[in-house]
Design a protein that fits this description.
The chain is α/β, with parallel strands linked by helices. The protein has 4 domains: about 130 residues, P-loop containing nucleotide triphosphate hydrolases (Rossmann fold); about 60 residues, Helicase, Ruva Protein, domain 3 (Orthogonal Bundle), CATH 1.10.8; about 90 residues, Zinc Finger, Delta Prime, domain 3; about 55 residues, no CATH class. It is built from 19 helices and 5 strands.
Length: about 400
């Protein structure tokens, strides 16, 4: 064996050991694949096609971590065809033409067909998709595309008509629990049911993210069995860090906001004066007042947002020093206005739910139905137009959140 081959094999083995847990545990067979039973469950058409090595052109679409790329690589391990993998982010028309030329030579020389896996196919522009179309149409290549976007918006109709579409959903907590158990076995750690469930929930429907959280939680535990605090630490979304040289700037704007929140118009106008005298950008002040108008006043006084926006427009049209008067008028109004943070609390509750559980799909009857193919997906079916029938109740939140309250008016 050549020395370079020996070093290459050794490097490959070391890289495998250093790879992230999600990479090491990427399923290689359908039996290892978790979730998507409606797509690749026992007896499904796609499972039979993969097992028999007779896949046709197809596009997988769904959220990150749902298994699109993994399914394509399972096909790569199963097929006797040549498997070519490209990322639409990194290649252009020249790369596509090279792959097609090589596919033609391969077919003519050995009779071997080519499967082209195109990750992030939605990033291909029309010219790139058009260059690919004749080869897909003639059968020179079998296309497998993967995208997080709805292909009816991002892939041209000619390609869509020649490919089978498979919609993948976010993984359920039960599916992710199986992923966690496999990951824990690979890492050699024993997890309590509570911790394993917490990791599965923190994954947000994403298998890759779930394994990343598990790996980080185990590392945070420092050799001990991780607990729920380690999981929370591993899954935390860290806030932005500001330059400490701006302490005075942030202290003053903080005092300004808190004074308006506390309904102290005198203090609010004072801190406004400090900022103007200190050379603060008046547009920054105006932007913070617009945010305050919704965050702290909200629907207790809907006029507040109009006052704040008007002050911002005045800053643009008039400028300092005259705009100081417009800003002071708005600051005094906001300070004296009735207060409600219900909208602020509602959006943060909703965002926390999204971060914790992932973005839940809307019920089928609420999904968009105004594009070709939508009805084939079942979108919009059963929707009741409220203007015509206001008394018929229907569910608007996703199924997993039905009945949940985010907005609690004062």
């Amino acid at each position: 064996m050549h020395v370079d081959d020996l070093f290459g094999d050794a490097a490959g083995a070391r890289l495998e050991g250093l790879a992230p847990l999600a990479q090491r545990l990427r399923p290689r067979t359908l039996d290892e694949f978790v979730g998507q039973q409606g797509v690749v469950g026992e007896g499904s058409a796609l499972r039979r096609a993969i097992t028999a090595d007779r896949v046709g052109s197809m596009i997988f679409f769904g959220p990150p971590g749902s298994g699109k790329t993994t399914l394509a690589r399972i096909v790569a391990h199963q097929t006797r065809s040549h498997f070519e993998e490209l990322s639409a982010v990194q290649v252009g028309v020249a790369d596509v033409r090279r792959v097609l030329a090589e596919a033609r030579e391969r077919l003519g020389g050995s009779g071997q067909r080519t499967i082209l896996f195109l990750d992030e196919i939605h990033r291909f522009n029309k010219g790139q998709q058009d260059a690919l179309l004749p080869a897909v149409e003639s059968g020179l290549v079998t296309l497998i595309g993967a995208t997080t976007e709805n292909p009816y918006f991002e892939v041209n109709g000619a390609l869509l008509s020649r490919a089978q579409l498979y919609e993948l959903d976010s993984l359920s907590v039960a599916d992710l629990r199986r992923v966690v158990d496999r990951g824990a076995a690979e890492l050699g750690v024993v997890l309590s049911d509570e911790v394993a469930d917490a990791i599965a929930r923190a994954g947000g429907g994403d298998g890759r993210n779930t394994l990343n959280v598990l790996e980080a939680a185990v590392a945070a535990a420092g050799g001990a069995a991780p607990d729920e605090s380690h999981v929370a630490d591993a899954a935390r979304k860290w806030p932005l860090v500001y330059d400490r040289e701006g302490d005075r700037h942030y202290d003053t704007i903080s005092a300004f906001i808190k004074s308006m929140r506390g309904s102290d118009a005198d203090a609010a106008v004072y801190y406004l004066a400090v900022m103007i005298a200190g050379g603060e950008d008046p547009k920054f002040i105006a932007r913070r007042m617009i945010v305050f108008a919704s965050e702290d006043v909200g629907n207790a006084d809907p006029q507040a947002i109009q006052v704040a926006v008007a002050a911002a427009r005045a800053v643009e049209f008039v400028g300092l020093p005259e705009a100081r008067i417009n800003l002071a008028q708005a600051a005094a109004y906001l300070a004296r206005a009735a207060k409600s943070n219900a909208s602020y609390v509602a959006i943060d509750r909703a965002l926390e739910d999204v971060r914790t559980r992932g973005a839940q799909r809307p019920p089928r009857h609420l999904r968009g139905s105004g594009y070709p193919g939508a009805r084939k997906l079942g979108n919009g079916v059963g929707y009741v137009y409220p203007h015509d029938d206001p008394d018929t109740p229907q569910q608007y939140l996703p199924d997993a959140l039905a009945g949940k309250r985010f907005y609690e008016p004062d």
